[in-house]
Every structure is written in C-alpha cells, then in structure tokens.
Structure to design on (759 residues):
C-alpha cells in the first residue's frame, strides 16, 4: 500500500518559520516537518549538520571511569590490548581505538577474531591474547556486552576490562566498566555503531584530534545500517567531507578508487567501501582488513585494498551459489511459516548473513541461516520492519546456546539436535506477537505530484543527504494511464516515458511495459534526480515501483475481459468449489498471512465476498514480495512455487498452468459473455468493418471509434479471433487486416472456448 506522509495539523506557522529562517522553500520545509522536525532550530541542525552539535562524550555513564583507567595504563606503562570484531564496524572501531590510543600515547595491540572463532570474547582467541601479550587491560570494541562469564575469568586472572559496545543489553551485563549507548545511563542517543562509541572514547581522551577518524566512523555507521539521524547524521556528514577532500584514511581512498565510486555519498559508501571491508571477514581474513586500516605503508595499503576487492568478488560468487541452494531447501518448507530457518553443513558462516538479508527482502519475513561446525549450528538472523528478532530470540533462549545483536540483525548459536524445536518455538512466538501489518511493508511517499516538478525543489532535496536508514531519500508518486513507455534502445531492459509533470526512467522496467502501457490507471513511485552534463542541468525521475490503481469500473472489467481472450490453450486441472467454500479460504487467509493467491476475473464477483480488504491487490501478475496473501485481478504466467494454493473467486474463460493446488469457484462467472455474438455472420461483419479502417488501428478503443461500433467486447473478441487465424497482423504497433486469405472461422480455439463457456 502506498501511504502519503503529511505534516501534523496546525504546522503551517512552523513550516513558514523554517522556510524563513533556513532559506528554503515552503515545500521543502513541509517535508522536514513531515519527517518529524519540530522546530526551526532542529531544522537548522538537520540542514547544516555540524560537529558543534555533537553530544559530550562524558554523558556516557561509564566514560569517566574508562578514561581514568586508560590514563592510568599510560602512566604505569601497562600492556593494553584492543579486542574487536570481524565485520566492517568491528574492524574500523578497532582501528579507531588503536590509532586514537597511539595519539594519546599508548602503543596498544589490536586483535580481531576470524568468523570461524565466533563472535565476541571467545575462549580460543582469549587464550592466544593472554599467552602472546600478557595484557594488563583489554578494551573491547563492538563486542563484550554479552561476555559476562569470559570477563569474570579475565578478572580472576588479574586482567582489567573496559567494554565499549553498542549492541542490545542482555539480562546480565559484565561487572566492569561499560561504555554502551544503549545502557540508558544518561547518553541522549542510542543509535551509535561500535566505531561511533570508540570515537567517543578517543574524543574524551584527545579532544578534536579524534575527528581525524570520522571517515572510519562514517563507513562503519553505514555498513552497520545504523539510523542516519541525530548524531549519526553529523558523524557521517563530517566523515564524507574527509573522504571527498582526500584527507581520509589511505585505505578508504584506495578502496573508493578500486570500487569505482563516482559520486561520494552515503549510498556509494554502502555499495563500495562497506562490502569490501566486510568481505575480508566473510572470507576468513579479517586480519588483512585490520592491517589495511592501521598500516602507514602506502605500498602495503594498496596491496591490501586490491586484496579486499578480490575478496569481495569471490564473496559475490559464493553468495550466488548459497542463495540458489537456500532457495532449493526452501521448497521443502511450509509456505505458511512466519520465519525462514535453514541450515547446511557446507555453508560458509561468513556469507550466510548476506543471503539471509536477501531472502528477507524477497520473502518479507525474518530469516535465520545456519552453518554447522562440530555439531553446533552458528546462525545469522535478519528481520524486517517492526519484527524485533533480538526479542524473538530472547523469547526462546531456553533452546539456545548463545545469541546477541540488534532488533533487525542478530547472531545465534544452537545445538544441531535443537533446531526443530527452535524453529517451531520461534515461529509460534512471531505468529502470536505480530499481525499481518508487520509483514506487509507499506511504501511511504513524500507527496503525490499533480503539477510540474520543479528543479528548484529537486536541488533542495540534496540537503537530505546523507540518506540511509531512518532518513531515506525523498520519493514521490504520480498517477498515469497509458504511459507510452518504450525501451531506451533495442534489447535494453530499461524503459523511459514522459508525463506532464516529469520525465521518468525505469531501470530494469521492461517486464512492467504491459502494465505501464495499459489503459488502467497506475501509480508510479519515483525519486527525483538532478544531473549535469556539459554544464546543462536536467531533471528526471528514477522509478522505484509501478502499481495498478485497481477499481471496479468498466475500464478494469474490459481490461480483464480482454486479458482472458489473450492467453494460452493449455488447461490446468482444478478442484471445483462454491462461493461459501471460497469465503472459508478467505477467512483462513486473514489469519495465516502467507500462502494463498486469490484471483478475480470479474470485479462484480467481489460483491459476494467479505474481508478481502486485508489483502494487497495486484493486476495480472503478482509483484508483492515473497508469498504474502494477495488478491490478483486477472492473471498471467507467474511463479507460484512459494505458495500453497491459488483460489479463483470466479470461473475464468481459461485456466493457466499454475503447478500447485488450484481451486475454482464455478458458481460465479469470471468471463463476462453477456451480449456476445459468436455466430459467423457477426464475426464476418466485424471483419469487414475492420478491413475498411484506413491505415489500420492501434487498439480496440481506436477501432471502436473508427467503426462506430458500440460493443467493445464484441470487437475485442473479433480482433483476437482474426489475429489467431492470421487475418490480422501487428506491424509497427498497428493491427493490419490481411486480405485474400481464406480460413474457417469455426477453427478458432478462442472462439470455440467462448462458445463452450457460454453453454
């Protein structure tokens, strides 16, 4: 569903105040208020993020104790070890703490585990650290908050520990100095990443010199999908300034060059730098990434940047293989499940998180993928929207060995023999806790366009950068009927079309051409983009989605009627049901959320049913994610493997090949044959009228106008029959009558099917 966000009522004066104080248009000021800006001062901070607005690091409850202990370590010449994590956030956080302590005057040792060692303070890595470095103080970054037992053992050995972390707070936290933005101990922003917390510690120690590490904070914040609001907006903005100016870390500069980043914005870091840093840990070599971020040797940095690039390419290949394997395993699972849980002994732990995120997006439900090692399953979880995977894991922790993470992403360890019970329990918890609205994600737009989109507003929209989580790029919607869309060039998957308001470009939109060019009204969601070429500025809308605006008017009825005349000859076997049985399926689907496609071919049939308003509505093909229940107006060839059943709410002219259990309500007519004439004389008369149209015709609507024919259904039938028999051909977008060809009208499969239906 498309939702247009609007500012709170009574915001007119605030919008004017923001416009005047900040020097922006009222249209832009309205967008800010709609996004939650509550004052002109807030708007000023948003539009012009500045380091002066950063929070005092000593607002952390544990910051004073942490800095005093670090100062004591410096004064006493103690051995300090920084213990990080293997992902982009953990590596950059380790680098910030390592380089920051060096500025402070401590030559610390830096350690990151590999994924095969497991997350956090694991026994094997700690043994190596104790043996190799004999530390007096261990400072964790991006981990440690869930390591109560391990830290108790370190304390028994005489090792002090400072935990700096940002993960969710477990029931029992370590009995040591803790700096965590989620503790609720006075720090006003809980959305920092691990590198952000590390930066705050270094900032408390060395002041403004810590700002030299903001490029690393920016990369980590984006890589860890942290909200780009409040402090994070400032940290990422300042980090991007360093990167754009070339004053950033040498490895980031090298990665940007090797990754081909042309436009340095938050999204380009997400697609170039972040995946390459993460790839090292995913491929079992997080240490190389750490060295790249801590080295001062230009040659070594270049070699390591190339290495990270090659790791990323290898990671992409392995992800493709694992994704296909996961899809195959998914075929054996119930489509009604509220969560996807899969495991395989051969899956690499470093890439299951990426594939889990991809499946989560595709199926619109939480996903946990597990790899196996020595009879123990190590999983990576990804969730969507309001479904808190950390709380879900907490609810079933009695069958887990360990877990930790965030609301949207988490790690979990479980014994192999418990996987069945775990899957059953977590599915039951999610089913009880979250209703259908949590799984069906609405599309939020910043406005519906009914007039010319102004370049001035598009230019102002750049002030929303950096964009990302909780601060998406502004998108708008407009309604069109026949778009006259066409590929950019022959064979191109990309299409373009014009509207009175803005020219639009739809990347990989070829499959939507039929919908775009149909007579039905469509809603197009787009992102306005300004570009400059040869000093000339141009404005285009980049299409994000196209959806049919489906009503019950005559245009929809006629479109569905014509669609039934256009399809293949093969027939699917099905089970006959009546209206009451169809209603039972609807009632079940309102509770189950997943697994059923309902199809209607005549909108009048919907008057016989209740509770259909709970389902998303589609036109001709299913475009919604995963296997959420959906009501489809008409149908074309679709992959229904993810569904349990298809229920036709009325009987169509033909049955497509679907491949899963299919039910058809034969009580209601889906093909509106009222008034149709199927005799030879009627069709010959239509043929002669079409033959007299000079230059041919583009569609049935035009043919009706030129023939003076009032019965469009009759003419549509004739066109399809004659096209099937070769008496009509399409050339350059027009129907042309073929003269001098003899054939038997009664040999038409379409005509005979219509006759049989009428009988």
């Amino acid at each position: 569903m498309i939702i247009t966000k609007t500012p709170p009522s009574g915001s007119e004066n605030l919008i004017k105040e923001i416009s005047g104080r900040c020097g922006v248009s009222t249209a832009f000021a309205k967008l800010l208020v709609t996004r939650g800006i509550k004052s002109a001062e807030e708007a000023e901070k948003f539009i012009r993020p500045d380091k002066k607005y950063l929070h005092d690091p000593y607002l952390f409850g544990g910051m004073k104790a942490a800095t005093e202990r670090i100062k004591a370590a410096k004064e006493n010449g103690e051995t300090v070890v920084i213990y990080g994590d293997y992902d982009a956030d953990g590596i950059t956080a380790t680098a910030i703490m390592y380089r920051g302590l060096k500025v402070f005057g401590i030559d610390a040792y830096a350690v990151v585990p590999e994924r095969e060692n497991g997350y956090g303070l694991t026994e094997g890595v700690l043994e190596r650290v104790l043996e190799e470095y004999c530390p007096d103080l261990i400072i964790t970054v991006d981990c440690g908050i869930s390591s109560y037992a391990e830290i108790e053992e370190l304390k028994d050995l005489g090792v002090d520990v400072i935990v700096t972390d940002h993960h969710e707070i477990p029931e029992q936290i370590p009995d040591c100095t803790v700096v965590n933005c989620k503790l609720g101990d006075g720090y006003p922003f809980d959305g920092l990443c691990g590198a952000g917390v590390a930066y705050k510690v270094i900032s408390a120690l060395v002041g403004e010199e810590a700002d030299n590490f903001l490029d690393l904070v920016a990369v980590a914040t984006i890589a860890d999908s942290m909200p780009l609001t409040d402090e994070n907006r400032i940290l990422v903005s300042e980090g991007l300034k360093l990167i754009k100016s070339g004053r950033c870390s040498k490895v980031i500069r090298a990665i940007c060059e090797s990754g081909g980043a042309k436009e340095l914005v938050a999204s380009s870091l997400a697609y170039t730098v972040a995946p390459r840093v993460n790839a090292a840990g995913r491929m079992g070599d997080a240490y190389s990434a750490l060295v790249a971020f801590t080295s001062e040797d230009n040659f070594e940095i270049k070699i390591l940047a190339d290495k990270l690039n090659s790791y990323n390419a290898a990671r992409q290949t392995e992800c493709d293989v694992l994704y296909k394997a996961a899809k195959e395993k998914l075929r054996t699972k119930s489509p009604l499940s509220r969560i996807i849980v899969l495991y395989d002994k051969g899956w690499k732990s470093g890439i299951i998180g990426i594939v889990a995120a991809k499946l989560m997006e595709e199926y619109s439900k939480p996903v946990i993928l597990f790899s196996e090692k020595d009879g123990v399953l190590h999983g990576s979880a990804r969730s969507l929207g309001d479904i808190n995977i950390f709380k879900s894991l907490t609810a079933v922790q009695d069958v887990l060995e360990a877990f930790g993470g965030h609301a949207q992403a988490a790690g979990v360890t479980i014994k192999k023999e418990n996987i069945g019970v775990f899957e059953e329990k977590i599915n039951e918890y999610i089913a009880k806790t979250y209703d259908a609205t949590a799984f069906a994600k609405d599309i939020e737009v910043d406005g519906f366009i009914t007039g010319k989109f102004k370049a001035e507003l598009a230019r102002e929209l750049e002030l929303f950068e950096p964009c990302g989580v909780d601060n998406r790029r502004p998108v708008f919607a407009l309604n069109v009927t026949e778009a006259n869309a066409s590929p950019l060039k022959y064979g191109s998957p990309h299409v373009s079309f014009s509207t009175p308001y803005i020219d639009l470009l739809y990347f990989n939109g070829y499959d939507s051409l039929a919908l775009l060019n149909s007579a039905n009204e469509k809603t197009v969601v787009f992102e306005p983009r300004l570009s400059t070429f040869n000093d000339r500025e141009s404005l285009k809308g980049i299409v994000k989605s196209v959806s049919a605006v489906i009503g019950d008017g005559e245009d929809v009825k006629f479109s569905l009627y014509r669609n039934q005349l256009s399809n293949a000859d093969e027939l699917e076997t099905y089970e006959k049901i009546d209206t009451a049985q169809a209603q039972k399926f609807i009632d079940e689907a309102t509770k189950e959320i997943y697994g059923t496609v309902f199809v209607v071919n005549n909108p009048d049939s919907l008057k016989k049913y209740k509770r259909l308003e709970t389902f998303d509505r589609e036109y001709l093909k299913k475009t919604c994610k995963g296997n959420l229940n959906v009501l489809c107006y008409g149908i074309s060839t679709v992959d229904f493997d993810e569904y349990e059943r298809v229920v036709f709410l009325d009987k169509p002219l033909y049955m497509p090949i679907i491949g899963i259990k299919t039910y058809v309500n034969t009580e209601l007519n889906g093909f509106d044959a009222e008034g149709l004439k199927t005799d030879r004389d009627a069709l010959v008369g239509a043929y002669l009228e079409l033959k007299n149209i000079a230059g041919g015709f583009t569609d049935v609507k035009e043919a009706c106008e030129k023939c003076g024919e009032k019965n469009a259904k009759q003419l549509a039938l004739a066109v399809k029959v004659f096209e099937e028999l070769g008496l009509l051909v399409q050339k350059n977008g027009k129907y042309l009558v073929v003269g001098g060809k003899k054939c038997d009208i009664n040999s038409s499969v379409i005509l005979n099917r219509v006759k049989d239906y009428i009988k």
